[in-house]
Amino acid sequence: MGFDGSGGYNRTHNWVTDKNAGIKITASRMDAEFDDFASAMELCLLKDGQQNPTANLPMNSKKHTGVAAASSRTEYVDGATLQDGGFIWAGVASGASAIALSLTPTITAYTTGMRIGFIAAGDNASAVTINVDGVSAAAGVKGKNEALVATDIVSGGAYWITYKGANGFQFGNPLEENPTFTTLTTTGLATIGSLTVTSAVTLPGFIETGTVMLFFQAAAPTGWTQVAANNDTAIRMVSGTGGGTGGTVAFETAFASQAVAGTNTGTAITEAQMPAHTHALGSNSISGAGGSVSQTTTDFGDISTKSTGGGDTHTHTFTGTAIDLDVAYINVIQASKD
């Protein structure tokens, strides 16, 4: 009969029951009883590992204790090995740019999501490749699948990498652990956060490739390339879409000192446009006799003619050269970092 499926064991015969029933002990009954024992024992797991389970073994919320550290990918991982990172820690790497790593136990293939830690053997001088246990050389990348550049990795630094398939091994943000820098030279005292500097300083290169900024200096800083597409133009701030251009006249040309040349036309003024004025009165008389002639002039003093003229304004037409102020410009926008 053996085990009942719930861990209980049912015997084939009962000797007391047989005695009370007057049944004698016979070889056949003994063989049946012990054959059943043998069949049951074959279902038991032996401590020396002679037998293998044939189904999942429920542990009933119990645990294995006193287990040894695993040495194969198919063995249990004990708490110490897991906590110490034993299976995924490669120790000191071999090579600085072409990095070789070794794991225990060894692997035979890369799996997406695989995570490995190591200590760098030296500063990388160029783009990086990672080869674990001789599987194959895969690219080492940072950020958005960007190749590493010189000194992204520094000797003695601890790094974690994650395999992400076709893009290779992703470094866990080397810019935080061992930053790459763009040099910014200052000529005076500068303060960056709580850091006070008095000479050349270095700042992390957090600005993405392709970003365009304005600089008030003679040449592009290290790591930047001057854009020469726009020259001698104004900068126009817009609230709409930036990046546009307009105008045709160079900045220096539009705002240079320019002489205005032209002519006025003649204008005949009317009586009403003349300033108010008067004329003085006087008279002359001529007389003579016997060949003698005399002239007499009479001055009427303050007597004058009536005032005439209204003093109205008048205009002249001016014809001159046009000044083109359609200055060339580029559109820029204001934005604040989130």
- Please state the average pLDDT score: 82
Structural class: mainly beta
Beta strand count: 21
Distance between the termini: 75 Å
Helix content: 10-25%
Report low-confidence residues grouped into runs of 5 or more. 175-183
Strand fraction equals 25-35%
Biggest β-sheet, characterized? Answer: 8 strands, mixed
Using only C-alpha atoms, the radius of gyration works out to 53 Å
> In one word, what is the shape?
rod-shaped
Determine the number of helices (DSSP H or I, runs of at least 4 residues): 5
Order of helices and strands: EEHHHEEEEEEEEHEEEEEEHEEEEE
Secondary structure elements and their pairing?
Elements: E1 2-3, E2 9-10, H1 15-20, H2 27-41, H3 79-84, E3 89-92, E4 98-101, E5 115-119, E6 128-132, E7 137-142, E8 146-147, E9 158-163, E10 169-171, H4 174-177, E11 181-184, E12 190-192, E13 195-197, E14 201-204, E15 234-237, E16 245-246, H5 251-254, E17 262-264, E18 280-289, E19 292-304, E20 318-320, E21 329-332
Parallel strand pairs: 3-5, 4-6, 7-10, 15-21
Antiparallel strand pairs: 1-2, 5-9, 6-7, 7-8, 9-10, 11-14, 12-13, 16-21, 17-20, 18-19
